[in-house]
Amino acid sequence: MARLDEAKLQSFVGKMLGDLGGAYSIPTVRVGLRLGLFKALHRTGPISASGLAAAAGGLTERYVREWALAQAANGYIDYDSTSQMFSLSPEQAMVFVNEDSPVYLEGAFDLAAAMIEGEPKVEHAFRTGGGVRWGDSAGCLFCATGAFFRPGYVNNIVQTWLPALQGIEEKLASGARVADVGCGVGFSTILMAKAYPNATFVGYDFHEPSIGEAESHARTHGVDDRVKFVAATAKEIKDTGFDLVTSFDCLHDMGDPRGCADHMRRILKKDGSWMIVEPIAGDRPEENMNPVGRLYYNASTMICVPTSLDQEVGEGLGAQAGEAKLSEVIRSGGFTQVRRVVTGPFNMVLEARLSS
Q1: Full-model pTM
Q2: Domain Methyltransferase, which positions (predicted)?
């Protein structure tokens, strides 16, 4: 038995205290977001606990004071010990207040809570080898997932990802037909539709409650006249002749991603493009031993792999499949050109084509 290294032990315990502190912050942050405490703090500037309780709509001061001290200990808000005032810096506001910020993280906290809620079902799947149907593991996993991805979509789809594709911006501007496969609650589809009013869009997802949410969002944003949402798996899509197919953060969740690739080839025009947005990952596990890989591996254990194993084939790619594996899967569907067109801190964007 190896001899205990006391310094390593203390370092590891220190890491665990930090990790547990982050875990313990999940419910208090979610309460603060739902009750508008972060927004009230941003609106008022430096304020006492009693003032913050009043500014947030007449909450109970004793709870608000403990909450504010917890967030100050987290480093999520600032505390002046002399004045006993709390405040929110511009950087903290980017995470907790500005909903269109690329680092707005409300959805991430909700997703963490959904993973904890789904723990018993995933544990059962560990024992049986089965899967957990998408949307069944937690009360609103699909809502949390949509909220988690939305900031990245708001800041990247139109600005960076679509312009990186070969000739697609011109097609969209002149009236392309687009299929958004695995559209979830429709954020990606609607963002594209608002940016390209001459194009028409169909969002497909196999989860009917997500499609219902997507239709509601389309009406709210006034694009329901040229955006349609359909409940269908990727291989059930009957329409063809699309100029562009998009798949945002979903190929690795599919039970049969190879069958999906084959069907995407069939529904695309011969000069069309398939844009596949996937979590950033290296091709070898050791390349993913970093903060982003840590998030994705844990989420993949609790969500992505169980979702895939519940479906037909159940390939279980996982959120950290890597470019080489994803490209092999895409090429197996008959695509001759697969290239990475964008690399970001959280995502990679691949373009698949039938011709150069």
Answers
A1: 0.94
A2: 174-280
